[in-house]
From TrEMBL:
Record bears the keyword Transcription: no
PROSITE patterns: ABC_TRANSPORTER_1, ABC_TRANSPORTER_2
Listed Pfam families: ABC_tran, oligo_HPY
Domain ABC transporter as annotated: residue spans: 2-256
Entry keyword Hydrolase: no
This protein's UniProt keywords: ATP-binding, Nucleotide-binding, Transport
Protein name: ABC transporter ATP-binding protein
Protein source organism: Catenulispora pinistramenti
Family matches, as InterPro entries: AAA+_ATPase, ABC_transporter-like_ATP-bd, ABC_transporter-like_CS, Oligopep_ABC_C, P-loop_NTPase
GO MF terms, alphabetically ordered: ATP binding
Length: 368
């Protein structure tokens, strides 16, 4: 199990023309990934999704908050002590073309980590070839045909499957899929997505799925939680289907409204909307981060920063409303009248929440 509590990451940039600037990549991100579960993060480019993935795999540090893996808070350990925990968490990189060493065959790529793993577990080192063939078969490749080849001799889909096989060589318990299908031909994407779902079911591996594609997040993260990130901050969180079918935060609604509609099979959602302005991160926003672009913003949005609160009529009218004004976090509070929402964990950071239907509706379903 992975628990992230208030993870923050800030960068200081220095440019000759742009000057010094502070970039808040992550602003207090919280989530829990249960064993065998799935958590998806969606948002536009630059919102902090990849930074979060790198932090979870130990490739990046964080400024504040806590990262707990199997009950152990990693920030309290020395770097060498953290290695065994980060080894359980492997990343599937976005670009399969640059993720593999072009001068090494697939056999060499898989062989080194498998031999190291054999020494750790006490298994015969000579058994690594058999394990390599087993992993390639698991990800849907023919071992005899793939092992002697170099990356440039493989298709994009085959390379990504080799990347997944390499991640599995150390027997991870968590996979971080960072835009795992964005650079693969559309015809091959479904195969990779089905493979990720199959690995969850067969091996019990937990999955963190990072993407800007809502459809893939819904497919892979079925039954898990969906987190919507805007400028490093989670603005809405809940069960994947609930957030997609009944989004509450205006940013989530704008994001889902951008999903293409299959003409002839679907009709546009009746409440589709769009941001009122382009993103400008240099403009100070003391209130809601989305306020300068929000089509439903009010006066309060520009002055007070909202926090995550449960969605529900009573919750917004009582404790949640007070917490939104004062800046307190009541995501764990006992708010009466919102039992159904609390069971699903659907929370948002908006002063004027309203559930809207923005995704495509199957033809004939809207009138039924």
């Amino acid at each position: 199990m992975i628990q992230a509590r208030g993870i923050t990451r800030t960068y200081q940039t220095h440019g000759s023309f742009t000057g010094d600037r502070t970039v808040h990549a992550l602003r207090g991100v919280d989530f829990t990934l249960p064993d065998g579960g799935a958590v998806s993060f969606i948002g536009e480019s630059g919102c902090g999704k990849t930074t979060l993935g790198k932090i979870l795999t130990g490739l990046e540090t964080f400024d504040g908050g806590e990262l707990v893996v199997d009950g152990v808070e990693l920030s309290k350990l020395r770097p060498r002590q953290r290695e065994k925990y980060f080894r359980r968490i492997q990343m599937i990189h976005q670009d399969p073309y640059s993720a593999l060493n072009p001068t090494r065959t697939v056999e060499a790529t898989l062989g080194d980590p498998l031999r190291m793993r054999a020494k750790e577990t006490g298994a015969p080192v000579s058994a690594w070839r058999e394990r390599a063939a087993e992993l390639l078969t698991l990800v849907g490749l023919e071992p005899a045909a793939v092992l002697p080849k170099y990356p440039h001799q493989l298709s994009g889909g085959q390379r990504q499957r080799v990347v997944i096989a390499r991640a599995l060589t150390v027997d991870p318990t968590v996979l971080i899929a960072d835009e795992a299908v964005s650079m693969i031909d559309v015809s091959m994407r479904l195969g990779i997505l089905s493979l990720l779902r199959d690995l969850r079911a067969r091996l019990g591996i937990s999955l963190v799925f990072i993407t800007h594609d809502v459809a893939t997040a819904r497919y892979v993260g079925d039954g898990g939680e969906l987190h919507v990130i805007y400028r490093g901050e989670v603005v809405e969180r809940g069960l994947t289907d609930e957030v997609i079918l009944s989004p509450v935060h205006p940013y989530t609604q704008c994001l889902l409204s951008a999903v293409p509609v299959m003409r002839g099979l679907e009709e546009p959602g009746p409440d589709r909307t769009a941001p009122t302005a382009a993103l400008d991160e240099r403009t100070p926003t003391p209130g809601c981060l989305f306020q300068p672009r929000c089509p439903f913003a009010g006066a309060q949005c520009a002055e007070t920063h909202p926090v995550l609160v449960p969605f529900g009529a009573d919750a917004v009218g009582t404790d949640a409303a007070e917490a939104n004004v004062t800046g307190a976090d009541v995501t764990g509070a006992d708010v009466t009248g919102a039992d159904a929402t609390e069971e699903s964990g659907h929370v948002h950071a908006c002063f004027y929440p309203e559930s809207r239907r923005v995704v495509g509706v199957e033809v004939g379903a809207a009138s039924a």
